[in-house]
Amino acid sequence: MAADQLSKVIRHLRTILEKQEVTRCPDTDLLERYVRHHDEVAFEALVRRHGPLVFGACRRILRNHADAEDAFQATFLVLVRKASSLRSPEMLASWLYAIACRTALEARRAAAIRRVKEASLPARTEAQEDAHADLRALLDQELERLPAKYRAAVVVCDLQGKTRKESARQLGWPEGTVAGRLARGRSMLARRLARHGVVLSAVAIAGALAETASADFMPPMLVALTVKAAALKAGISTAAGSTIAGSFASAKAIKLSETVIKMMLLSKVKVVLSALALTFVVGFSVQGVISHRLGAAAEGPAAGGPTKLVALVGEEQEGKALLQKAIEAATAVVDDETRVAILLQIGYAQLRLGERTEALATAAKALAIVKTLDAKLRKVTVQLEIASLQDEAGDKKARRATIESAEQTALTLLEPFEKGNGLLKVVGWQTLFAEYEEALRVAAESGEYQGGALGMSLAHTITLSIKKNGNVAAAREALQKAVAIAKTLDSGRASQTLGNIAEAQARIGQLQDAMQTVEAIAPFEKNPAGQGIGKLNALRGIARAQAGTGDWQGALKTYAGLTTYGGNYDILADIATAQIKAGKRPEALKTIEELWRMASETEKEKKKAQEDLPAKINGKIVILEAKLGNLDAALKTVATLKSSFEKAQAYLAIGKAQTELGKKAEARKTLRRAAGAAAAVLSYPAGSLGRNSPNARSGSPVEVPEYRKFNLLSQIAVAQARAGDSEEAAVTLEDITSDEYSGLYLVLQAMAEAGDFENARQMLPKIKKMAERGYALDDLTRLMTKAGQEKSALALATQQTSPALKAFALLGILAGKTAEQVDKK
Q1: Using an 8 Å Cβ cutoff, are 440 and 481 in contact?
Q2: Residue 770 and which of 18, 49, 504, 792 are 20 to 30 A apart at CA?
Q3: How many other CB atoms sit within 10 Å of the CB of residue 475?
């Protein structure tokens, strides 16, 4: 008996010591312990550390103690499900704050609808609402809407009361970056509050936030109940999951958490489909990027659908009235492709308003129109867009049938390039929807196109598919089957395809599978015993995949095994970028030093084939220095660059960093240098002989294909618009001499995002293509509505004489009113 009591005392003391130890651990370590080992002590430490911040936000928004407790528990139940997928664990405080606000707003929305349905029930409040409470709730609402990096700085510094040094250490940013983003975040808050008639300086906002934070508290019993409910929900203590978790968390809290998780999945829409659409761009023009991004993705979800977050019941009715006007305008549109694009927008709007049946009917209308179109690559894209709408509306059977139609359309295309690109799209979308067997079938049956369709699609979309569907085992099995198919190809294609598959395997964390696939390349190499180009490229792909997923240590190990040196500078740059994102500044500086050594050694070698390599490496170094906030060092390095193209890229990176730090005046000067350097770049048209062209042979310094120059000019103009230099952005665009690469849409979007609606409106008529102008108008009216300028947006919609443009404008207003928008990255 005495021994048992002593054992219990020892276990108790160990638990106390362990809890004392974890309180000193940073968020990143606690999250890692929880994700890897389901460490309940680590999770409890996170709840205690961030609980006051979370409960305070819930209490201010809901103004009801019981409802706030439900929202508090729901927030941490969301963390249980999402802990393993957090991209920036060092920003956990900001992430939890945002989830708390969204959860509380969803609870308030549900309560509002419930009160309308049960009119006899009075609204529950525990205290007389006052002006201070209104201001605090408004602060929370607008702070949650800030872009993540600015919100993180404000939350950690102002709401959690950390010093700049402490904040920099927690967030993994340089102190200068913290200061710049904090100032920018406060300034953005001030402008957003002014739209509500609340005029406060940045200093006053900091004071109001500090006062808000000082009032935050957390009921002690709530922590214990939440930790226990989370443990049961995650299956730490039992497999009963939600059922037993209900013993410690209310049914309302569990339901709230499930609703918010679904909303988060749905809100990945634009990010995932934009990435997918950009992946499939085989023609490299900016216009190509725009058409795929807008046509295939800009308004269509791929990661679960649109976010249904209607703030008030009355607004829902207003939204339906707007939608009806848009539908009426769409009926007068004559051009079939434009009408289909509008119908897709309408379908997603219907889903946001909960009209699933109507959305499916809209998809059917769009399909009927598409059937009358000529068989072109664009037809394949539109069919896949409709399939996505059907998927978000929950009709998987219809989605599969539409994708099969897209496959048949692709097979009827006569141009080999278009046929291969069409099949590539089909395989990619099937992969995204986790239809792996179908994707493999199409790839295997696609004849001479199978190498590209199989390798490229799987490599670039498999990770998107896992984020959407979460089934790693099925994805792994599909990739293993893909290896078997790849081995049947001719040597060149087999080597390339296997390399792409190895990269995909690394992206989903299957490093052992990836290395086995690399070994399978050997029989297809000219020198099977050595590290031929196929194996080398595969290993490079694996290293890039590791760096891209944050595993910079694994990437370094893979990099160390590469036999060539100078050609791997891009991998080192990717590793340094991953280290910067992870807050590993000393490690990033060490990697940059390695790049300096590489540049120096290749300069000494003076090999003709690598004569421009040192400059390319220095260009990467400039970009990395800018990301670290070492702007003076970056500017000095620019002086060593000889290529106008690389100088323009370097100045662009520095200008972006200056904008992020709030140094807009300096950013505008730097970006003008970037524009000047880009304008001086000599280029050759796509499809010409490039460096072997007559100009190149005669000694003229032709540097890059034309599309790359125009793409760079477009990026610079966007950066200038974001830095508040709209006039210079317009001047930069004048150097783009092709309508195919105009960049107007992207710059207009940047102007609107920066709040420069007047210049954005003036740029609209310059966009010549109707569909592109329509999407630009949609974005403009959406952002105007979000900024509180709904009347001006409606006036702009009314001014449109084209039914198509009027429909786009109305749908943009509807999106601004009813849908929670995804922050741009």
Answers
A1: yes
A2: 792
A3: 24
Contact 333, 804 (CB under 8 A): yes
Per-residue model confidence (pLDDT) at position 275: 44
Tell me the torsion sign for CA atoms 770, 776, 781, 782: positive
Instruction: For 453-488, give the DSSP string.
Output: HHHHHHHHHHHHHHHHH--HHHHHHHHHHHHHHHTT
Is residue 547 a contact partner of residue 571, using CB atoms and an 8 Å limit? yes
| 8 A C-beta contact, residue 644 and residue 667 | no
The pLDDT of residue 825 is 28
How many angstroms separate the most distant Cα atoms in the chain? 96
CA gap 94, 100 in Å, rounded: 10
Using an 8 Å Cβ cutoff, are 640 and 672 in contact?
A: no
Return the SS3 of 150. helix
Spatial separation of the C-alpha atoms in residues 139 and 207, rounded to whole Å: 12
- Say if residue 784's pLDDT is above 80: yes
Please, are residues 538 and 529 in contact by the beta-carbon 8 Å criterion? Answer: no
Q: What is the mean pLDDT of residues 656-663?
A: 84
722 and 748 in contact (C-beta within 8 Å)?
Answer: no
Q: What is the dihedral of CA 67, 70, 71, 74, to 10 degrees?
A: -170
Burial 63-83 (b: 16+ CB within 10 A, else e): bbeebbbbbbbbbbbbbbbeb
Instruction: Give the whole-angstrom CA distance, residue 75 versus residue 54.
Output: 8
Q: What is the pTM of this model?
A: 0.59
**Cβ(373)–Cβ(409) under 8 Å?**
no
Alpha-carbon span 322 to 320, nearest angstrom: 5
Contacts of residues 549-556 at CB distance under 8 Å and 24 or more positions apart, as own/partner, are 549/506, 549/507, 549/509, 550/87, 550/578, 550/581, 550/582, 551/578, 552/578, 552/579, 552/582, 552/584, 552/587, 554/511
The backbone torsions φ and ψ at residue 278, rounded to the nearest 5 degrees and listed phi first, read -65, -35
β-pair partners for 308? 819
Residue whose C-alpha is closest to residue 615's, from 658, 644, 657, 635: 644
**Partner residues linked to 704 by β-bridges:** 683
Cβ neighbours, 10 Å, residue 356: 15
pLDDT tens-digit profile of 671-720? 999 988 888 887 766 554 444 444 443 334 446 788 788 888 888 999 99
Q: Please give the Cα distance from 529 to 442 (Å, whole number).
A: 34
Gap between the Cα atoms of 235 and 226, Å rounded? 14
pLDDT at residue 347 in the model: 92
Query: Do the Cβ atoms of 419 and 410 come closer than 8 Å?
Result: yes
**What average pLDDT does range 511-515 have in this prediction?**
87
How far apart (Å, rounded) are the C-alpha atoms in residues 450 and 428? Answer: 12
Distances (CA, A) of 162 to 29, 153, 178, 759: 19, 10, 11, 39
**CA atoms of 343 and 336, how far apart (whole Å):** 10
pLDDT at residue 363 above 90? yes
> What is the rounded CA–CA span in Å between residue 779 and residue 709?
26
Q: How far apart are CA 105 and CA 145, in angstroms?
A: 12
Helix residue ranges per DSSP H, 155-250: 164-171, 175-194, 202-214, 220-234, 242-245
